[in-house]
């Protein structure tokens, strides 16, 4: 009864709790939160100092009593308490944005395909203690497919590849369910680490992961570019410890990240090999759709298409597909029923 009363006033939310970014969607306003999954905490008092964009600015620059924590690792919760606080902050902020009086929303939230029951329960519990009245779990590739407007309920197979910060998920979807899939714990963050390692090995220079990400965004690519690109980067000399600047070009960055890109492409091929032939025929016809921030790596679609001999396209606004999919499901209870991932407990 109480729930019913609250339900009438509360605003429901779709959430993409990502390793790198957290997004929140409300039916009225669309995406109201899109911020990095980072929390800054005063370790002396346990007080939260900043969340999201403000906390990200503190990464790597905090004095010893302040810690900037990324509570998600490889798509799953690694620090429960901090995740719960971060979600609460974002949910409250989403409600403040849409002037809701009683913020006890139903929440549809994405989870990776291969998580354990314990990891799944952690997402449910954190979302509920952050203020949700009811929690619906949805597999991220399914949400990404719905957000990309793919006909997931049809008896035609589609392949979706979501490359985020911590996970790459490859899934074949047909008739509202995932038929075959593969979740890799390597994605955008791994490319950044590859670049850190390369610069260390080739130039004897130490750079941070944020600088590495900047390099990837500015001049990173999966295949040769029409016009070469280069950029000046700064770091610390490994031998004398002093600041130093060097110039790095696109082919060096390609060399740094090439192995990881090849692993992702190999897994796509493996997934195709274990997919029933009728469905593979559909995928050949319809192509592969890329989502997640990793989809934006220059030339990745072309490299994948060449390796698989299947057309590949990047979804519109790939960074927001999962949360937009969750948002579509808020307004489509019939489809939600079809694609819901079983909950670990009764809601
Ligand atoms: N233009 C770009 N080129 C290459 N990589 C990019 C680009 N834009 C964003 N990325 C990468 O995309 C990743 C973030 O993507 P996304 O927000 O989809 O991840 P996430 O959902 O937080 O993570 P996960 O799904 O693994 O939990 C980061 O590694 C980021 O560097
Ligand atoms: Mg994601």
From TrEMBL:
Pfam families: MreB_Mbl (PF06723). GO terms for biological process: cell morphogenesis; regulation of cell shape. CDD domains: ASKHA_NBD_MreB-like. Keywords: ATP-binding, Cell shape, Cytoplasm, Nucleotide-binding. The keyword ATP-binding applies. InterPro entries: ATPase_NBD (IPR043129), MreB (IPR004753), MreB_MamK-like (IPR056546). It is found in: Cytoplasm. GO terms for molecular function: ATP binding. GO terms for cellular component: cytoplasm. Its main location: cytoplasm. The keyword Nucleotide-binding applies. ATP binds at residues 165-167, 213-216, 293-296. Forms polymers. Forms membrane-associated dynamic filaments that are essential for cell shape determination. Acts by regulating cell wall synthesis and cell elongation, and thus cell shape. A feedback loop between cell geometry and MreB localization may maintain elongated cell shape by targeting cell wall growth to regions of negative cell wall curvature. Belongs to the FtsA/MreB family. This is Cell shape-determining protein MreB. It comes from Candidatus Falkowbacteria bacterium CG23_combo_of_CG06-09_8_20_14_all_49_15.
